[in-house]
Amino acid sequence: MRSYQDLFRTPEFTPLFLSSALQGAGQTVGGLAIGTLVYAATDSPLLSAVSMFTPQLAQVLGATTLLSAADRIPPRAALAGIALAYGLGTAVLALPGLPVRAVFPVILVLGLIASLGGGVRWGLLNEILAKDGYLLGRSVFNMMSGLMQVVGFATGGVLVAVLSPRTALLLSALLYLLAALGARLGLAARPPRVSGRPSVAATWRTNALLWSSRPRRLTYLGLWLPNGLVVGCESLFVSYDPGSAGTLFAAAALGMLLGDVTVGRLVPPALRPRLATPLLLLLAGPYLLFALHPATPVAAVAAALASLGFGASLVQQERLMALTPDKLSGHALGLHSSGMLTMQGVAAALAGSVAQLASPATAMTVMAGASAVVTVTLAAAGRRPRVPEPQPA
Hints:
Strand content: under 5%
Order of helices and strands: HHHHHHHHHHHHHHHHHH
Radius of gyration: 20 Å
Number of helices: 18
Number of strands: 0
Helix content: over 70%
């Protein structure tokens, strides 16, 4: 599979793409609205950051209890159900007079439900596309995610400033409901990839199997840690510059879009494996400039430049799929997605805590430095000789 045209000619790719785009736009608009709402009510960088990333924190619970369902339930029903639940939950968050203390239980439940989404969606994508098409297909989804974030943060920023955060939440709920409808009507009814009932025990067994291989462990850590720490920087945009947070988020999303286009479409396959570490260092480096408290234009350029480094995840996911049997693809990709989102939530809480004690700019600098150190450490570990390990049957 060599071109974007080939992708969109593939049956089911387009409806999966459009449904995911609507859901991504809903998450972007809703996340900015929630963060702004909580910051306005509490004046707390910690609570604002955590409110935007609490769904990600819930992913760790889903990854250890529900993830076996990613390959054991029909994907169409799962994707439509998850989007529908998010639409209804976001509508609840938009209720007038809802106290801040009630916001967190709702978004925690939504995050638990969403923990299945990555495994189901990316497992289905891996099933729909030819073996050599996954990276190109995933790059298109990442590009779409970046575009939806640019549009979503810009739109959300206008709605929050001109109307209210609750209006933005209602728009988010509508987008989720449209995503559910698109998944239900556009995707074919496919059977589960693996037989048997989902269970906590099955989740733990497969997690242990995937984690038992050192190359996969290092790949997972590379997907989770540097990325998550830098998202901790992004979680402080609202408290760093409340009036221009939408601009900073949009700039970061634009950089991610350009990085995914470059890595997914322009970089030769032979060169891609060597780019993971340089891209991860690029992801962290520009955020060190926030130690100087740059003005909004400079901060936006730094955020956009850093986000080019998110293209590293495409290289790492390609390696993960090469190390994983096809029948475990949904679970493996779900573990990647849940672990990444969990780390993003943890990093948001950590960054918010440092910002509470010092300042948002200081916290962003600390998180960026930690990301760079982790990247160098993992790169050194990956160069060490290893004993060949048996692969799962």
